[in-house]
Amino acid sequence: MASVTLERLNKTFGSTHIIKDVDLKVGDGEFVVFVGPSGCGKSTLLRLIAGLESISDGELRIADDVVNDLPPRERGVGMVFQSYALYPHMTVYENMAFGLKLAKMANETVDERVMATARILQLEELLHRKPKELSGGQRQRVAMGRAMAREPRILLFDEPLSNLDASLRVQMRNEIARLHHRLGSTMIYVTHDQVEAMTLADKIVVLRDGRIEQVGSPQTLYQQPATRFVAGFIGSPTMNFMPAELLGAEDGCRVTAPGLGELSLPQDASGQPAGAELSLGVRPEHLRLAEAEGDNRFEIVNVEYLGNEVYVYLEPRVGDTLLIHRSEAPSRWEIGQRVALVPELEHVHLFDAQDRALEIANRRRAA
């Protein structure tokens, strides 16, 4: 096992700047997930750690060793790719042993490592089979085993579950989580799926346009997003956003929002001028519905029943993105009803004109 440290890491392809001054510390034994939209640089960052791409500027350390110029085989990393990349003419055993034999290890050592890895991944009964005789989940476990058999200091995963169907992804997520718990090894995992990130990670790194937007535990990113981008990316269904205007910050934070009226919120808005345009965010489970009359009403345009819960979609007062209310099933709300929205004020988020979150007042004083 080993830690990974990135200091002002940069990567350019010609005139295109892909990775921009990334600073990050991955602790020994941590499970860290890089997440972000397509093109944000997460796979490129993983390839820089693996040594599959050269670093344009900055420093990369594994444990205490600077590895900028080391080839992949000398970095002590193992990588599991999106495609299984198994040799179709080889058995499971031969696929897992191939890299060890290339490294000219003794046959006894090769056999010990392959068998030990097979036991961990529950592949012992499949060692004689070829890839075409395996399911997708079994093939992915073989690909993981091939990387693990080399006993790398760090395991890297590049969207390893994206080719699997939904039920198999859930199964493999649990397999990977159990594997990390058993081995305690350092793992870095790339995905575009924020559900995978939330369920697997000790620490999530949210990337945007080649920069780190926020780093934190899944709970921290969900409950205390630092920017509107993180708030909208983490969580499913996504956070609701509405425009708001700051009325005053002298005696608490008072805002008004279309259809919600005047709200008194716990944020510290002392750095904002009266009349400042803000963005108000509230997650679907923190948005209650109530019967109402008058102008401050929203029309229900769709109701989705998902078994144990219900999503109610509402026409916004401003913009064209539907608002979402989430609650336990059954629901008494129907398409066409007009209702009032009542946000739980202690769970409301405010973002300034630069999309930065305003801190809770007592949290700032405590800090």
Automatic annotation (TrEMBL):
Instruction: Spell out the molecular function terms from Gene Ontology.
Output: ATP binding
Q: Domain ABC transporter: where?
A: 4-234
Q: Which PROSITE patterns match?
A: ABC_TRANSPORTER_1, ABC_TRANSPORTER_2
UniProt keywords (A-Z) are: ATP-binding, Nucleotide-binding, Sugar transport, Transport
Matching entries from CDD domains are given as: ABC_MalK_N
Recorded hits in NCBIfam families, A to Z, give: PRK11650.1 (NF008653)
What name does UniProt use for this protein? Sn-glycerol-3-phosphate ABC transporter ATP-binding protein UgpC
Q: Which organism is it from?
A: Halomonas rhizosphaerae
Q: Specify the taxonomic lineage.
A: Bacteria, Pseudomonadati, Pseudomonadota, Gammaproteobacteria, Oceanospirillales
